Hints:
Number of strands: 9
Shape: globular
Largest sheet: 7 strands, parallel
Radius of gyration: 16 Å
Low-confidence stretches: none
Number of helices: 7
Strand content: 15-25%
Distance between the termini: 13 Å
Order of helices and strands: EHEEHEEHEHEHEHEH
Number of domains: 1
Strand order of the largest sheet: 4-2-6-1-7-8-9
Structural class: alpha/beta
CATH architecture: 3-Layer(aba) Sandwich
Mean pLDDT: 96
Amino acid sequence: MKRIFVTGIGTEIGKTFCAAIIVEALKADYWKPVQAGELDQLDSDFVRNAISNTESKFHPEQYLLSEPMSPHAAAKIDGIKLLPENFEVPETENNLVIEGAGGLMVPLNHDGDMLIDLIPKVADEVILVSKNYLGSINHTLLSIELLKQRNISIKGILFNGDANPETEAIILSTTGLKCLGKIPMMDQELKGFVREQASKLKLL
């Protein structure tokens, strides 16, 4: 059983979409520790509606924050303090996909704890979601460098969205990491697309 943390090089990278594909590929359980805002459209609901397998279980969010803001700010508004040591990983005998919020240096609180401080406490390894845009090489390499500095195991990179072979090649050659998959723009019904992309992932 592996606990896989899905994080991105920033916001609006497609972490939830990619998490759904990983869940489908592994028939894994899913857990979103912190959901900030959009409580009527939870990320867990999106993943649940995107997958086809019947083995995956969805574990309740530990923190549901009312405002769509950075976790530290949303938690403060709700009178909550997010501390890495207070997170409790759901019990399961299945693989568990854990989806983060934003990028690695998103603050959890005002004491200096960041999302990256949570990862070793809840997960065994990380899948980094990258997306090709001007500046994404820098953002991807910085994220990988930080993970390596913290001795956090990186399973590989998932490229989401429009392909850019030149960008992808320099990231992979510089880091030596494995490309787990390249997710194109969705061109069919959601469940069918997720199922098809899941079959192409190189996770084993």
